């Protein structure tokens, strides 16, 4: 649906993009010209239409003058097959920038202590290679940056102690079965015994580690052949506005492995290269794949993977939950 709406908007002459920046912006030249004028502190105006999953749209009207950008936005939803405006906002961008990579970021000022949604918005203006997008959707986005550190840690099959297998068990369980792990989390702390075969099957589907290597990186009980599993709780839940990944280049090596260069786009920090890493992947003939290694090659000093919250240590867990 989003692509059809964007195509219609293109025909009408609007600059338009989807809410997740996963479809190339149409009529981007209008936005490029606006950004160039704004950088020169010239007067200019442009409309950008952002399309959401259910056909909802937000139209941003931007006006620049003297280096400032004023923003007017209107949200339109559908009701009984008719468009209905249900939200309006207007502000002067507290900060804005158009990056070399081709992102336009805008920030609406929020006072200290504001507990609503972040004020930052990002539009990918420049197109991204189609194959890069396909590789990202298949291999990288299912894992992403939320609640795991695979893409922000240096690791390979010899050095993997910084990986958190419990995080990866949760993420990869969903990748494998299309549903969440069958162990309920609660804010008061919960503990389960996961059968050995179940836990290792999930991890070994996507990572090149042996049973003994997985057991070394977890709490494994050899007596009853189970892994102790503690879902995240109140004290190690994660900040919700993590970055999203973009594959910006790829290389197929002679042995069939893929090397993907990935950048983290973190809108709330207005960064389109918060972390850059090289991820090695081994595609299989049956369509499955394994992650082989990751190498962080650049990290913005203002990012430092600040969205990731490590799980509680043994001591921290006992301190917070032992009385529950």
Write up what this structure looks like:
Strand 10 (220-221) and strand 11 form a beta hairpin. This protein is globular. Helix 4 (165-177) crosses helix 5. By secondary structure, it is α+β, with helices and mostly antiparallel strands. It contains seven helices and 15 strands. Helices cover 22% and strands 32% of the residues. The protein folds into two domains: 2-127, no CATH class; 129-324, no CATH class.
Topology readout:
Elements lengths: L1 H10 L3 E4 L9 H12 L4 E8 L5 E9 L2 E12 L2 E11 L2 E4 L4 E5 L12 E5 L5 H11 L24 H13 L14 E4 H11 L4 H6 L3 E2 L4 E4 L14 E9 L5 E8 L9 E9 L5 E11 L14 H8 L3
Parallel strand pairs: 1-2
Antiparallel strand pairs: 2-3, 3-4, 4-5, 6-7, 7-8, 9-11, 10-11, 12-13, 13-14, 14-15
Helix pairs in contact: 4-5
InterPro entries: DUF6070
Pfam family, one: DUF6070
Summarize, please.
With about 325 residues, the protein is an alpha+beta fold.
- Stretches where pLDDT is under 50 for at least 5 consecutive residues are none
Residues in helix, % = 10-25%
Q: Write down the secondary-structure element order.
A: HEHEEEEEEEHHEHHEEEEEEH
Strand content: 25-35%
Major sheet summary line: 5 strands, mixed
Instruction: Please state the CA-atom Rg, rounded to the nearest Å.
Output: 23 Å
**Counted beta strands:** 15
Mean pLDDT: 94
- Derived from helix and strand composition plus strand pairing, the structural class reads alpha+beta
Summed up, the domain count is: 2
Widest sheet: strand order?
1-2-3-4-5
Q: Give the termini distance in whole angstroms.
A: 48 Å
In DSSP terms (H or I, runs of 4 or more residues), the helix count works out at 7
Rough outline: globular
Pfam families: DUF6070
InterPro entries: DUF6070
